[in-house]
Structure formats: structure tokens, C-alpha cells
Prior knowledge:
The complex is a heterodimer. By secondary structure, chain A is mainly alpha-helical. Chain A has a single domain, classed as Helix Hairpins (Orthogonal Bundle). Chain A has three helices and no strands. Chain A has helices spanning about 5-25, 30-50, 60-90. Chain A is elongated and about 55 Å long. In chain B, a hairpin with a 2-residue loop joins strand 1 and strand 2. In chain B, helix 6 packs antiparallel against helix 7 (about 165-195), helix 15 (about 325-345) packs antiparallel against helix 16 and helix 18 (about 390-405) packs parallel to helix 22 (about 475-490). The radius of gyration of chain B is 36 Å and the shape is elongated. The mean pLDDT of chain B is about 85. The interface of A and B includes residues 23, 95, 96, 100 and 103 of A.
Amino acid sequence: MSPLQLCLAFSSLLFAVGLTGALARSNSILVLLGLELMLTAGSVNFIAFWRFGPPASPATGVVFAIFAIAVAAAETAVGLALVIAVYRHQRNIRLPEANRLKG
Amino acid sequence: MPPSLETLWLVPALPLLAASLGALTPRGGRRFSAGVAIAAMAGALLLSCLALRAALLDPSAHLVHNFRWFDLGNGAVELGWLLDPLSALMCVMVSLVGLLIFIFSLGYMCEDENFTRFFCFMSLFAAAMLGVVIANSLLLLFISWELVGLASYLLIGFWFHKPAAAAAAKKAFITTRIGDLGLLLGLVWLYDSTGSLLLYDGGNGVLEAGVLGNLGTMALAGGLAVPTAISLLIFCGAAGKSGQFPLHVWLPDAMEGPTPVSALIHAATMVAAGVFLIARVFPLISYDQALAADPLHALTVVAAIGAVTALLGAAIATAQSDLKRVLAFSTISQLGYMMLALGVGSWVAAIFHLLTHAFFKALLFLAAGSVIHAAHHEQDIRRLGGLGRTMRTTYATFAVGMMALSGVPFLFSGFWSKEAVLHAASEWAVSQLPLYAGLVGVVLTAFYMTRLLCEVFWGPARSPEAAHARENTGVITVPLVILAIGSVGLGFLGTPAWPWLESALTGRPVAPRSLLEGGGLMALSIVLVAAGLGAGWALYGRKVRVSADAKDPFSAAAPRLFGFLGARMRLDELYAATLGRLNTLGAALADFMDRWVWGGAVGFLALLGEFTGSVNSEVDESGLNAGFNSASERIRGAGRAYSGAQSGDAQGYLRTVAVAFVVLALLVLLGGGR
Lengths: 103, 674
């Protein structure tokens, strides 16, 4: 098994864990954690293809990863603010109960 | 244009303003409304006097001010006012008598709670009457004429809580309306034939020679000239308003109104409007005299109706027992004299009698009002009596009015005006019958007035009300005294020796004649007056009635005649039996037609409409609506199904996305790309 394959297997596992967390947990903070894991899996893919793939311009994969991390940080900040807002309304952060905006 | 002509419109406008202010015054503003009304009448009197002075500068001129009211097709409806001695004299008479009656009303109506309303209506009446007098357009005259009728209706029915007053008001309104219909038709016909309703319009007015000449050439199928037909229609209106024979029945009933109303409207002014109208359009009415081919002259009809009315009114007055009703029938009789004078061609004599009559009849009515006020609204002469001792001023003034009305010679105005009427009648070429009717009327007038005086003022008081009667205050007696002075003095305006009135009215100097002109006739009428007075005194004065139940001497002598006259010749019953029954029959027929014929047709149409409507609705319900309903139901079902997917569960959505993605990926992988 080449190092690239190993890395891709790892990132797939990471993505699957994240997806499961996002779909299955009802605590919205844990759902956010799942989302972060899926993003991280994407970043790992970038790094792996940059490190083991055909030669390219010097820092493409790293730049992608750094951008993804920055965006993820911003997204988490917004997500946590939403969690706090949800908590203020319903005195808990259970996602299945936050359905008051349905049609 | 002289200033008096320019301001002439103010003469009716001032009382009209007072009426509108009075209408806006709350019930408590008694002082204000009466003050405004009296001030307006005083202003109108002042302006009328100025107008009279201006008119007498050139009595033959007809000063007019015409203006266009609105355009109608190719023509225009024009209104205007007219200043000549006739209108100015009438203005002065109406506003002077009106003013005195207003002042009298201050005392007479002081206990009435609707005092402000009374003065509002009285002002409205005065405004309308003055409008009639100054109108230069028959249309304006007709408008005012109808307003007079309205005011009369309102005032007769002033005490409308009394059923008799309400009925009398209706009767007056409807009866005069019958005459007014004729008047309106006459005016429409006149407008159709001449294109104008202006009386004087610089040669184009309907009373001027050019227009009359054109009108005279037209004739109807029966040979009746058009001017005659129009004149007769106009006379219908005059007969209704002036209580002439077939239409006189409303006037006695109108006595249900307050006594000042009777004095102002039903004695002095309004009923004179008909006489005034005929005098005003005299050139038109008398025009057919010149048409030899005309089978009937309008004036002949006027004279005949006048003579019948004069005689009939006087005869019925002899047997009435209500103080005001005697005076009412006397008014009818005197109006008959005026019409008679017009009919025999002497409109000057008619106006002379109108002016003097206005004063002495207003005097008599106000004196009667004074009696009624003092005797707590007792007006049955059998239950009065003895008032001559307690009410000296009223007694004296009533006696003056009574002598003026009876035509006591030389001193009293009624003598001179009645002589003028009789003199004119004696010179009528067609027939002497009106003269004889007039002479008989003289005897009857003197007789019933003597009876009235004796019954009311002589003998013992025959009821507690009469016994407690005391003389009224100055606000009531002063107008009586002023009117009494007028009743004496006015006669000297028209004596044969100084025919001032005739020259003023006709506009040409009239040579003075001997004071005793037509001496034979004058002597005869003096003898007749003496006979009437003597007969009255012999029956009622020599042995005065002692109790209210005592039999009337006239009734004792001729009970059937007395009963017949007392029941007003049963004319009301005759009308009820003929016209009333005809009307009821017509109403029943119309009711039948309405209910069954027209009602049936309308009902059938309604049923038809209902039937088509129900068919329509059935088609809608079962056919069209079902399709729409099922389509709508399906749309709603689809919507409901979709809305189930909107659970609001974010993770659910995400799961769907994930599953869909997996399915998509499998499709792509297994399907081999594209």
C-alpha cells in the first residue's frame, strides 16, 4: 500500500466519522464537530495529493489547506453563535427540536 | 336706474333672511327671533315707502330689472322685478300690515312654546308674499306663489297636534294646489306661445301690446281665443288662492291656525294674492274684450265667479257661530267683491277695495284675536258677550272695523271702496246681475257684522271665560288702534272727489268728479246698509241673548234656512259625496290595477326570473363547480404531501442529501460515466 493510498484511506475514514457524527448526533456542538472533521478530511486529501502526486507549483496544496482551515474557523464561530442563539430560545441545544422555522 | 329699483329685491330678501335666522335659532332664542323678524319687516316697510315715492314720480312707467337665470335650449329663463305704483302700494300694504301683526303676535303668542318657529314661518310668509308682489316674471311670481302656499300650510298647521288643524292645513294645501295646477298650465301655455314669461320687457313682455297682438291672432278649435284660455287657467290659480266659489272651502277651515295667521294670511294679504295676480296681468286677461269673435270673455267668468262668491260668502256668514268663521266667510265675500270689480273691468276699484279691506279685515281679526286671547281661547260667540264693558279699546276698534266692513257712509274706508266696486258694476255693459248680487251682499254684510258685534260685546257675559276677560296690554291694543286709523283714513285716497289712487295706479291724471257721483246708486247702497244694520239690531241688539243655550232669533224665524247656511250650504258634504267619492273610486280602481294587473305582471316576471335563476344555479352547482372543486382538491392534496417533507429537521435534510449523493455516486460509477 503506497503512502498516498494510506493517506486517502485515512481521510475517507475521517470523512465517514465526521458524516456519521453530523447525521447521527442530536447535540448541535457535536454536529459542528462532525462538520469540522469532514472539512479536515478534505484538507488531508489536498495535502496528500500535493505531497505524493505529480510535481506541481511549490505550495498549492498547503495554500488550499490553510484557506480551508481559515474558512472552517470562521464557520465555526458563526455556528457556535447560532448554537448560543438556539440555546437562548429553547433552553437546550438539541437539533431535532430546532424546527420552528419549518413551513 | 333709480336706487329704489336696485334695492327693491331687498324688500322680500330681508324677511327671508329673518326667516333663515329664525330657523337657525334654538327654541330659547325668543327675543332674538322676534326682534329679527320685526326689524326685517320694519326695514322692508322703509324700503317699500322709498320705492313708492320713486314709483309715484312717474306713475305710468314700469321700471323693471330683468336678469337671466339660466339658458334653456335656444331660449333663456329670465327673472326680474318690477317697480310701478301697483307693486309699490302692495309692498307698503303688506309690510305695514305685516309689521303690525308681527307686533300683535308678540303679545298673542307669548305663551306658546314654539314662539321662534312661529316668527320664522311668519317671516317666510311675508318674504314670499312680497316676492309675489314685486315679481316681473310670471315664473318668479309662481315660485313665490307656491312659497306663500307652503307658508300658509305651515302656519295653519302650526298647532299640528290638534287633528283639526292638521286636517285644515292639508285641506288648504290641496285645494289651492288644484287652482295652482291651472295656473301652472296657463304659464306653460303662455311660455309656449310667446317664448317669455316676463311681464314688462321693453316691448317683449307678455303684457305689452306687441306680444299680446300676436297672441290674439291664435285661436283654438272651438273658436275660443288663446288669450282667453290662458286667462281662464291663470284665473284658476287666483280663484284657489283667493277663495273663490268652487275652491273657497279651505278658507274657513284655515281658521284653525293662530289668530295672527288668520289676520295676516287669510284676511289681509295672502288671499289678496289672487286678486293682485288678476290685477297684475289685467292687460292679458282683458285683451279678449277686443276680440269680437270670441265666444266667451275671460272677464265675464271672473265677474260671474266673483258675484257668486260675494253673495254666497255673505249668506253663509249670517249663520256661523264661531267668531273667526264669521270673519272668514266675510273675507270670502269681500274677495268676491274684488273679483267682481276685476271682472267688470275696474281693476283700480278692486285694488282700492283690496287695500282698504286689508286694513279693516286685519283689524277685525286682530280684535277677534284680542277677544280670544282675553277669553282663554273661547271663540264661540254664543258663549262670549258683555266684552264691551271690560275691553273698551278692543270694542272701539272692532266697531270701527265692523263699520268699515259694513260700509257705513262717508267716514269709513270700506264705504268708498265698496262704492267704487258697485259703481263699476253698474257701468258694466254685459249684465247688471253682478250689481244686484253686490247690493244684496251689502245688506247681508251689514246684517252679519251687526250680529257679530252684538253677540260678542253686548249683553251679559255668558260663560266664565267671557266674565273673566280683561283688556290686553299695549302690545296687542296699539296695533289695533293704528289699523283702526288706517281703516278710517285710507278711504280718502280714492273718493270720487279726489281720485288720487286711480291716477296713481293708472298713471294718467283723472279729473275729480262730484263727491256724490252716481248719487242714486250711492243713496240706494246707504239705504241697504241701514237696512242691514237695522235688521241686525232688531234681531240681535234690541233683545240681547241672555244665555249660551238661547235660540238664535234668525234660527227661530227660519230654522231650515239657518241650518242650511250654518252647515255652509252643505258644500263640504257635497264635495265629499261627489269629488271625494270619485277620488275614492279612482283610488280603489288604481289600487285594484296596482294590486292585481300590474302586480300580477310584475309577480309573473319575478317568478320567471326566479325560475331561470334556479336553473342557472343548478347548472353551476352540479356542472361547473364540480370540475373546479375536484381540481382544487387535488392541488390541495399535493400541497399537503409536499408540506410533509418540510419537517424543519436540519439533520433529516442532510441525511436526504447524503443518501441522494450516494445514490448519484453509485449511478455514476456503475453506469460508467455518462
